[in-house]
Each structure stands twice: as C-alpha cells, then as structure tokens.
Design a protein that fits this description.
alpha+beta, Fructose-1,6-Bisphosphatase, Chain A, domain 1, D-Maltodextrin-Binding Protein, domain 2, 2 domains, eight-stranded mixed beta sheet, binds D-MYO-inositol-1-phosphate, binds calcium ion
Length: 279
C-alpha cells in the first residue's frame, strides 16, 4: 500500500478534545498517522528483522517510526524529554526542562508485524507531573485512531467510546497474558468464569479495545513497559475502565523498571472480581 492510499477518515484537527493538551494531542495524532503510513508502506516488505532477545524482534520500521516521532516532538517541544522503546530515555533538548516526557512505542506488536499478522499499532503519550495526560494509539491496518486526554473523552476516529457494559461475568471476553508461579490456577479460575479468552500480541491495541468494549478484561502479569500502556491506559480510563497493576496498585508508575509492569483493565463493575481471582 502506498502512503497516498492509506485511508484516513478523520481530520486530526477535529480530534483535539482536550482544553489543556489540545495541541499536543493533535501533534501526537498527526505523527501517529505519519508513522502508520510507514508501517503500511513496508508491511510484508521488511528488509531487516533482528532478534533483540529470544522472544523479541526489532525491524527497520520500529526505528524509522521512532525517529520520525522523536524529530518532530523535539522540534516542537524542545523542553520535553523523550522515552521510547528502541532509543530509551532522551533528556530535554534545551536548558529549560519542562518536566514533561513523551513516551512512545513506535510499533507495538512487532512480532505480529514482522510475521504479517495485521494486529499492531503505534502508541504516543505525553506524561506531565508523573501521569499520562494525552495519548493516541493508532492502528493503521484498520485506520483506527484511539485518542484521549486527561480532561476529555476517549475517542475512536473522533467518536466517543465507552468500556463494555455487560452485567454478567459469564458474558465477558477477556485477554489474559498471565503466567509465572501460582498463576496457572488463578488463570484457570478466570477462564472458567468468563465466556472466552483471546490473545492478540499488542498490549497497547488490546488495551484500546477494552476502551471501546471489544474486550471486557485485559490482564498481563509481567513483561510490560511504560511505552506499552502509557497512552492506552489513559484512553481506557477516559472510557470508564478501571485500570490498575495486577496487584491492584497504580497502573502507571515510572519508578518501575522496563519490562516489569503489569496491568489489569476492566469495566468498573467487574474489575474487583477479576482482581480477586488474579491478584
Ligand atoms: C510487546 C507486545 C506484547 C506484550 C509484550 C510487549 P512489542 O510489545 O505489546 O503484546 O505482551 O509485553 O513487550 O515488543 O511488540 O513492542
Ligand atoms: Ca510494545
């Protein structure tokens, strides 16, 4: 697919539904769309797939998307820091440090992407005072833009979205990435209580799916980093979901090292029950 043929249903200028962070959210959406164009242009035409570890790969597209976002953010907001999956932490580019940080996963679901499975996204969040204040998750293969800000609603392609409203636990569709000691029995208990379990391979997009009710529960016990959840966790919260760590504490905590984050997101009426089963 060429850049010009990537569909784009919405005008990013109409998506600034945040009074306080409107310009930042609009920039994030524009950059997510530009990175999404790169992702679609190179989809199934990758030149380089490198192993980062036994269960992790990186492609040239991860690097290209990250560089695109970082360059534009640095030009527009030189006082902000930058923190992204491939490059790590980059301090503010000027003497005047704003205390804000852009947290970016340039390609979440890289294994899917590298294998030709169309479930991946880019995630861009702005963090101020230690919490995400604006975020976008863009799925270029479906041209779906999930966005939200601390003072505005959660949106998909410009329309408000809400977390699922099912009453019965037995009707819930969950996505459980939980493992490790003691988890087998707990996981089995949840699986016995809900309708179905589906694993997708992109934490950010899965969490955005909780925000719009496609999934009712998302639980991951380990392996997450700030860039996986910063934008989507905010979007899910703005859509009415209860989001915590799998211990029931705050889901966003920059003092945690990368790969050591967990997450549990669900409709408020079901979060406590799932937490009790898994926590
Ligand atoms: C990974 C995906 C995956 C999650 C891992 C993440 P990546 O991110 O979101 O679903 O289980 O914890 O690291 O490597 O595709 O950007
Ligand atoms: Ca990721």
């Amino acid at each position: 697919m060429s850049i010009s043929s990537v569909p784009s249903r919405m005008d990013p200028r109409k998506l600034g539904t945040s009074a306080a962070f409107g310009p930042e959210l609009q920039l994030a959406i524009r950059l997510a769309h530009e990175a999404g164009s790169i992702q679609m242009e190179r989809y199934e035409r990758l030149e380089k797939i490198e192993a980062k570890g036994p269960r992790d790969v990186v492609t040239e597209v991860d690097h290209l998307c990250e560089a695109l976002v970082m360059k534009a953010v640095r030009e527009r907001y030189p006082d902000d820091a930058f923190y992204a999956e491939e490059i790590g932490e980059v301090p503010a580019g000027s003497q005047t440090n704003s205390g804000r940080t852009w947290i970016v996963d340039p390609l979440d679901g890289t294994i899917n992407y590298a294998n030709g499975i169309p479930f991946f996204c880019i995630s861009i969040a702005l963090v101020a005072d230690g919490r995400p204040v604006a975020g976008v998750v863009y799925d270029p293969s479906r041209d779906e833009t999930f966005a939200g800000a601390i003072d505005g609603p959660a949106l998909r392609n410009g329309q408000p979205i809400r977390v699922g409203s099912k009453e019965l636990l037995a009707d819930l569709v969950a996505t459980l990435a939980v493992g490790g000691r003691g988890m087998v029995r707990k996981r089995r208990n949840v699986l016995k209580s809900v309708r179905a379990n589906r694993s997708m391979g992109s934490a950010a997009l899965t969490l955005a799916y909780v925000a719009c009710g496609r999934f009712d529960v998302y639980a991951q016990s380990a392996g997450l980093s700030a860039w996986d959840v910063a934008a989507a966790g905010l979007i899910a919260e703005r859509a009415g979901a209860t989001v915590t760590s799998l211990e029931g504490g705050p889901w966003f905590d920059l003092s945690r090292p990368a790969k050591k984050w967990s997450c549990l997101a669900a409709a408020p009426g079901h979060h406590a029950a799932i937490l009790e089963m898994l926590g």
